[in-house]
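Action item from last meeting closed. Structure (255 res):
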């Protein structure tokens, strides 16, 4: 019978199957949702981050669709799912939309006492990124992902570690911790002047590179793999390799 209970086909609560992906932010409509009844009723705005052309980096089960929607209640509190999306977690303030977006600001633009200070209200907002590719990661603390932060759970009337979505990459800005540079640019800078062994050690320890799972996979390929990161850099003419020392050098374009 179709309605009989089963121990198979279980899902991860309301988290969905994805844990890290990039996608083009297509729209972000809001819809009201009411909790409770009568005088105790309260209404919140649920924001749907509709993404298209997604590239799945990590998932707990196969996902073959080109679209994905993240639904979060809008809030002005840092200690909320919307706060994690915006500001990251207390343990990692490099992630979160605002932190990634603000990487391109100069020290003067961060300084309220400076004439060039850019007020938060005038900085890049997620609503300005419709049509751009964003990178999202679940803060669940699994497989190297950011740890979950304590958020209020009304079902138990207490805080508890709660997985939530946050942003780790913004097209045209860079990845978390990259100070406005892409993971590819960071990897190329680390390859310059190093042997493959030294590069691998430095690259695998870099949080910016680790946030890009596709790049990380290319770096981790066997040295003989033609599509490994280092070999691709040589075959595309971006780097040369000294066969005697094994050191890679970035090709500088002629002036």
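Sequence:
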């Amino acid at each position: 019978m179709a309605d009989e209970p089963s121990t198979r086909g279980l899902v991860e609560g309301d988290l969905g199957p994805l844990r890290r992906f990039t996608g083009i932010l297509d729209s972000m409509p809001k819809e009201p949702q009411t909790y409770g009844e009568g005088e105790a009723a309260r209404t919140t705005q649920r924001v749907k981050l509709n993404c298209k052309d997604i590239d799945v980096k990590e998932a707990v089960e196969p996902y073959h669709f080109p679209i994905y929607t993240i639904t979060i209640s809008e809030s002005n509190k840092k200690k909320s799912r919307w706060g994690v999306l915006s500001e990251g977690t207390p343990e990692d303030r490099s992630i979160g939309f605002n932190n990634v977006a603000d990487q391109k600001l100069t020290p003067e633009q961060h300084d309220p006492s400076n004439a060039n200070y850019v007020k938060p209200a005038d900085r890049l907002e997620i609503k300005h990124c419709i049509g751009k590719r964003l990178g999202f990661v679940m803060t669940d603390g699994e497989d190297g992902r950011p740890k979950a932060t304590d958020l209020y759970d009304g079902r138990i009337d207490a805080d508890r570690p709660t997985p939530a979505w946050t942003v780790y990459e913004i097209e045209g800005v860079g990845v978390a911790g990259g100070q406005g540079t892409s993971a590819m640019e960071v990897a190329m800078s680390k390859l310059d002047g190093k042997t493959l062994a030294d590069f691998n050690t430095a690259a695998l320890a870099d949080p910016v590179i680790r946030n890009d799972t596709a790049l990380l996979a290319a770096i981790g390929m066997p040295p003989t793999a033609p599509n490994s990161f280092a070999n691709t850099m040589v075959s595309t003419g971006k780097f040369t390799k000294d066969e005697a020392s094994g050191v890679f050098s970035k090709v500088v374009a002629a002036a």
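Note appended to the action item: The mean pLDDT is 87.
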